[in-house]
Amino acid sequence: MTQIVVQEIWKNYRNTCGLIRDTINNFDDARWRKEYTWFQVPVRVARHTVECLDFYFREKGAPWSWEVSRFGRPYWATPNDRQPSQAELLTYLAEMEARIEGYFAGLHDEALGEIYDVTADPPSSTIAHLLYALRHTVHHTGSLVALADLLDVPSGEWDKWA
Hints:
mainly alpha
């Protein structure tokens, strides 16, 4: 059983999380909470991204509610000044990275074509699930980096995480 493809996908998750982490670290509190639109606020984008990783890598079949949050209220119902700090979100991201790494450690290439979660609606293959989750994460990482650029905050180094 091989893990060549699995390891390449994991490497892309690891590098994406690294870019998110470095970018979050570069914000100060005022710019972390600076609002351009209702959603385009660095803390909201970053929080949504990490919460989605939690959703994508929860135990298969485990219930999920977007209304219940580790931070008390969902991101959309939390005023910017009550959103988590960079440190709180970085702790959450580190937990998700560890969970994702553990998931990939037990996965083999041969399982990528299997149904990821039979309780999902609609069910999809494991590789489809993983690639969708990665694409969604990268989409929001781009938003976070763009907000950093707009706010004159250095984003994470692309070359470091390429």
